[in-house]
Write a structure and sequence with these properties.
Chains A, B: It comes from Telluria antibiotica. The structure is a homodimer. By secondary structure, chain A is of the alpha/beta class. Chain A is built from eleven helices and 18 strands. The first copy, chain A, is globular and about 65 Å long.
Chain lengths: 331, 331
């Protein structure tokens, strides 16, 4: 009985964005097919300047893998004091047929990758087929990851970017243009960026109505990433009134996603949420039905996305004979 | 940044029962000193003939370690079909100062060890000082572990053992006598064993009133181990009426321990529970107050026991330079 150990650099070579998009699509379909067990996650919150550690558990009955992702974040003094990043991660994979520990892999990359991929999955399901221009509100790592994934599923003609720290814009522009050859316009204001959008991506740590409803033109598809806990907010809740609202998990999004805000303000009711994205992928509910409607995909992230992504990395490692086997016990 | 990996045989050499008893005592004190964060555990239940996998998380603010114990059990076909035991375990230790993964160790042994130690801790706190005879209802692994631990804190003169499978008794007798030189009497009935007891240990998978209240003589200390989930039961609930009832965690024991049964039958009320054992160890509440009273220690097991035990194993490994360092990521 041996357990496969995978380092961060091995993980990064074992999976491409196309695979991650397929894994996230698989996760969404599985979630809406009753093939997933995904308990509420557990957290330990440490006092500042430390952050928190989350433990997310998912069981996928089709691949017979149980995943436990442990991810830390917000330990701001880590680089200076402990010579490690402010956030780290580990993923365990158990064989659900026996309970054996199959794999321990570094998990620093997976959250970013699978979150990036979710925007791309929603673009395929919900954006206009003639969408060309992307607005990016926020220019951090996840903003880049969204572009990396979305360019895999559509031709992006132009990106209009804005950030509450304008100083970050030139580096974002330089990075995106050199990596993907997509021209980036540094917007004067959030409004100027949003008004250009066929697809609007928000990846900030915002806590208020950053994007006003009136700025969003008909036909826009919105990928709302930033809000994954109470207290965070990126949109004026009014935007939800006449939009087609899609969640990754209605239970999660109504509890702590962007969707919580319009519910809290009675702008929409729970039954106004059109679908979970897996229902659309499975053909149980329609996606976009006109070129005029505004679609909103609110993503809070699910353990099953980590499961299907990590399982692909593990399978690729076995096939490519990458990694180190370690015998935690001898039989 | 390196993570220490510890195999099962390394773990077994890195800790002695004396250390485990100290670790469990530390855990109980910590729990009742507000130094512990211990969320409800998560479980995945698989369809028979598979079992379940539990995930237990504990943070101890004094050693600044966060432990996650993953333990599987009840996979009855494992030996035949997968060449692994029916239950396995893994423990992760994170440095709460940075969130870094400090250690991954095999966790097959820790649950048995720390559960064994809890009986010994309760004997120190609650048994008569002149206690000599132990009755063991149940003769499996945990029954042996209880003896291994209790003999560390008192002189056992004689053990009266009984099991619902009488065929297991001769092996138990042979094992205990050769390991510890303590004479074992194979009792004709549960009653015959219980009537001899100064200390009564129950470690069965029972689901009914195995031990009758009338059999238990005044002054007995009871270590109730077997019942750790709804549906399990070892005692006639009447025994709780005039006993001094001590729990490891009142929240857990009243929810799924032996203590649930007399509460359910209105034989005792919640306020009749004398103490959590940590309160006694800390001197906040008295332990045994007379040679006549019957004391009951109901143990359901807490994540913080895994934490303090695993942390000692980790510290011992560093001191003794045992184990394998693995770089999950390069800084």
């Amino acid at each position: 009985m041996q357990t496969l150990l995978l380092k961060k650099e091995e993980v990064s070579k074992l999976i491409c964005m196309e695979d991650v998009i397929a894994a996230v699509e698989e996760a969404y379909r599985a979630f809406n097919s009753g093939q997933v067990v995904q308990p509420d996650y557990m957290s330990i919150h440490l006092p500042a300047p430390r952050g928190e550690i989350d433990f997310k558990l998912g069981y996928y009955q089709v691949n017979e893998m149980i995943s436990m992702k442990v991810s830390s974040g917000g330990f701001v003094n880590n680089p200076a004091e402990h010579d490690v990043p402010s956030g780290m991660g580990t993923i365990l994979l158990f064989d659900a047929r026996s309970g054996a520990l199959s794999c321990v892999m570094d998990g620093s990359l997976i959250t970013g990758l699978r979150t990036g991929a979710c925007g791309a999955v929603s673009v395929k399901a919900l954006a206009r087929k003639d969408a060309k221009r992307v607005a990016s509100i926020g220019t951090g790592n996840q903003a880049r990851m969204q572009i990396r994934a979305i360019r895999d599923v559509m031709q992006i003609e132009e990106i209009h970017a804005w950030d509450s720290s304008p100083a970050s814009l030139p580096q974002y522009k330089a990075d995106i243009e050199s990596a993907y050859g997509i021209p980036v316009v540094m917007a004067e204001s959030a409004r100027a960026a949003v008004e250009q959008a066929d697809i609007l991506i928000t990846t900030t740590r915002g806590t208020g109505s950053l994007v006003q409803a009136a700025w969003v033109k008909p036909g826009t598809h919105i990928v709302a990433i930033g809000t994954d806990q109470r207290g965070k907010q990126e949109f004026e809740p009014e935007i939800f009134r006449n939009a087609k609202v899609v969640n990754d998990s209605i239970a999660q999004c109504t509890d702590k996603g962007e969707t919580w805000h319009p519910l809290d303000k009675n702008i929409i009711a729970r039954q106004d949420i059109h679908a979970e994205i897996g229902e659309i992928l499975l053909g149980k509910k329609p996606g976009r039905e006109s070129d005029e409607e505004i679609t909103i995909f609110d993503s809070t992230g699910m353990a099953i996305q980590d499961n299907t992504t990590a399982a692909r990395i593990y399978r690729n490692a076995l096939e490519q004979r990458v990694g180190t086997f370690f015998p935690f016990f001898e039989r």
